[in-house]
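Many introductory courses stop at the sequence. We go one step further.
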Amino acid sequence: MKQLFFELIQVATDRRECLERGPEPEEWQTLHELAQRQAVAGICYRGVERLFEFGLRAPQDVSIDWMAEAEEMKEQNEQAKTPSYVARYYDEELCNLRQSSEDYYVLNRPMTIEDVYRLFLEQRLNMRVVIDYYFLLLKTERRYETLKTSGFPYVLLRYFGVRRFARGMMWVLQEVMGMERSQMLCKPSGREGRFILQEMLDGHQKLEMLKRYQRL
């Protein structure tokens, strides 16, 4: 199911054309629930629509509920007085389907891997953040990041585990978004990435996260 979920996100964000296999009726409901929990129901519905041309359709009750959510998000985004700072990195259609929430971003500056790391430790990392960060890295060409600097900032990042976390996040972006190695901030780590994905999708264990990352 997780793989189908990632593939659906890739279809929605133009990273692939179709799923490897068609979901069973009950799996569509699970995909919808996953998308809701990860705050990407609107974005994933774009993928659901694109699958129509391949003959892959969710059961009617799931499809209607999903469509209603997506339309509500679109209406809210279109009526918003102040467009989301993060959403500027999306294309127009996806921007309107992005579930808005600015409570975890520093206003008026791009998100960095340090921000993503903080959200992870605060148990607020979800798939919406992953997609946000993916588009931001692509559009800003990583110029806001500091992982490759030297001196005191580098030592500070090492101390707080950001560099180790960053390697895991690059693997997550590779698995979820199909990001290419040349677009990554640093070399990916499957071991760290699997831990991040498990914590994000299956429930957080804050003590374990602190033990893992609050050390050199």
